[in-house]
Amino acid sequence: MNWIDAIILGIVEGITEFLPISSTGHLTIVEKLLGYQIDDPGITAFTAIIQIGAIAAAVLYFRADIWRVGTAWLAGLFDAEARTKADYKYGWAIIIGSVPIAIVGLLFQDVIETTLRSLWWVAGALILWSGVLWYADRKSTGKRGEDEVTWRDTLMIGSVQCLALIPGVSRSGATMAAGLFAGFDRVTVTRLSFFLGIPALVAAGVLQAVTKYDDVGTSAIGWGPTLLATAVSFVVGYLSIAWLLKFISRNDFTLFVWYRIVIGCIIISLVSSGVVSAT
Questions:
Q1: For helices 3-16 and 23-33, what crossing angle results, to 10°?
Q2: Rg for the chain, CA atoms, rounded
């Protein structure tokens, strides 16, 4: 991989990781257009590893919230009075909500990295989940706030997050839709999507870096471009987070719904016409 391709893919990752439009789906599309074999082990590992940059941006952006909730949770482990605080309960809610995707991701890792990497899956998931996101946005009462989040809510949202293992669904799109169905307002579901995504994406990135180290180092990708793409995704991801929170506080998800449908249709056209292959 050359440095220009690495920068392009880092930008794509940074922009799309937290928007409900599927970062893995977009990376798969761009990697294919750049001429890479999308089911190659090196590319698969690269795609997962560079997510660490974007998630590091989320950690930095929400550092005050993470510190507040984390210290409250730790205090609650040793102090009965601290267990009555909302942040302690919120900490447990995030931990419990992160369990489903960890289990499903490990159980179906091989299928995710091979069969589901097809552009047919990406296109279909982009279009079909657009309908779910649109319906959730229209039917949500939006009356519940962050102080009302319980472990039952995050367990349900975390279970739906598992669908994001299908490229094209979008991790944030899955969690946001589930949160909207649960009656939370748009800003709450967006922030909750970040908090549930941090442990999941860090775990996935670190696991790929450790287990697929040789795949990246000995393949045509290389660690230099991988680290460059990760750094780029960090910078762009930070800017993307700031923009998304500002945008969603004033708008609904319609823009993202139509964008997903258009991109999905373009992919189907390209694959059907033979311009690009599905894998």
A1: 160
A2: 18
Please list, residue by residue across 90-117, b when 16 or more beta carbons sit within 10 angstroms of its beta carbon and e when fewer do: bbbbbebbbebbbebbeeeeeebbeebb
Structural tokens at position 20: 């409900």
Supply 23's token pair: 């970062």
pLDDT(37) > 60:
yes
pTM of the shown model: 0.85
What kind and span of H or E run contains 47? helix 41-49
Query: Which element (helix H / strand E) includes 178?
Result: helix 171-181
What does the DSSP assignment read for 51-111? Answer: HHHHHHHHHHHTHHHHHHHHHHHHHHHH-TGGGGSHHHHHHHHHHHHHHHHHHHHHHTHHH
User: Left, alpha or beta for 150 (phi > 0: left; psi -120 to 50: alpha)?
Assistant: beta
Q: Residue 19: what residue type?
A: L
**Confidence band of 115 (pLDDT split at 50, 70, 90):** low
d(CA 186, CA 181): 11
Q: Which two tokens stand for residue 268?
A: 């189907």
